[in-house]
Amino acid sequence: MTSVPDTAVLDDLLSVAEEAARAAAAELTSRAGDLAALRIDTKSTATDPVSEADVAAEEAIRAVLARRVPDDGIVGEEGDDVVGTTGRRWIVDPLDGTVNYLYGNPQWCVSVACEGLVGVVYDPGREELWAGAADGRATLNGEPLPRATAPEGGLGHALVATGFGYDPEVRRIQSGILARVLPGVRDVRRAGAAALDVVWVAGGRTDAFYEYGVKAWDTAAGEVVVSALGYEVRTILGHGPMGDGKLVAPAELVDELLALVAPDA
Question: How many whole angstroms separate alpha carbon 222 and alpha carbon 216?
């Protein structure tokens, strides 16, 4: 879809995204007090978990989408893809930060995007709803977020968020990249939920973000939010076992940060 729908359509899609994200969050918070009872399996490696809470949360999202936008396509982390007929596609992560969730670490969220059009990242622990639309609107709990700005002093004064994969060989490559990044920035943060990492750039809680191996559902909603504010979103190409990733930064920092995070630098 190349054209941006009118405000009324975007508002309706934002309403769908928020309802779906809150429905998923209700499933997650209802289970958070009894984590020992959750059935836990693994995905890419033995240390990459998925719980029945993830699955229940995605089912809640899909139920909202089936009721409100039944002809749209869906891509989700835990369920099968649905091919729609409208040209719109929803990309959903029912629980971003599963390891944090299972450990009782409050850095987790729900991410729901209608690809390229609207995105919502809901953090139930902080009761924060980050929302963005393709017409340039971006809000936190309904309040407009500021436009993209770079820190005074450039990249050397930037707080940069990142994350790591679960495969040991991927982590070896990522540790080499991190060793280049650390001396060139103010500091690095690794919180464990890519969707929050992206929108926290929009909120000024960090200045930039990069991570290899993220999937579409990890960043799709946050990308709408930061793009609405003028941040640049770049795909960064991995190599070997390390998948492609995303970089988010103010325009003034992009080239210098890209040079640091390139895997063959």
Answer: 10
| Dist. CA 22–CA 28, nearest whole Å | 10
Sequence spans of domains, the chain = 7-144, 154-261
**Residue pLDDT tens, the chain, 265 long:** 457 889 999 999 999 999 999 999 999 998 876 655 555 554 554 444 457 888 889 999 999 999 999 999 999 877 778 999 999 999 999 999 988 998 889 999 999 999 999 999 999 999 999 999 999 999 999 999 999 999 999 999 999 999 999 899 999 999 999 999 999 999 999 999 999 999 999 999 999 999 999 999 999 999 999 999 999 999 999 988 999 999 999 999 999 999 999 987 5
DSSP state letter for 37: G
CA–CA gap between residue 23 and residue 114 (Å, rounded): 16
Q: What angle (nearest 5°) sits at the alpha carbon of residue 122, between those of residues 36 and 207?
A: 110
* Phi, psi values for residue 126, rounded to 5°: -100, 0
Task: Calculate ∠ Cα 69-248-114, nearest 5°.
Answer: 5
Pick the CATH number of 154-261 from 3.90.230.10, 3.30.450.40, 3.40.50.300, 3.40.190.80: 3.40.190.80
N residues, the chain: 265
CATH number of 7-144: 3.30.540.10
Residues 6+ apart with CB under 8 A from 44: 166, 167
What single letter denotes the amino acid at residue 171? Answer: R
The Cα 64–Cα 163 span in angstroms is 30
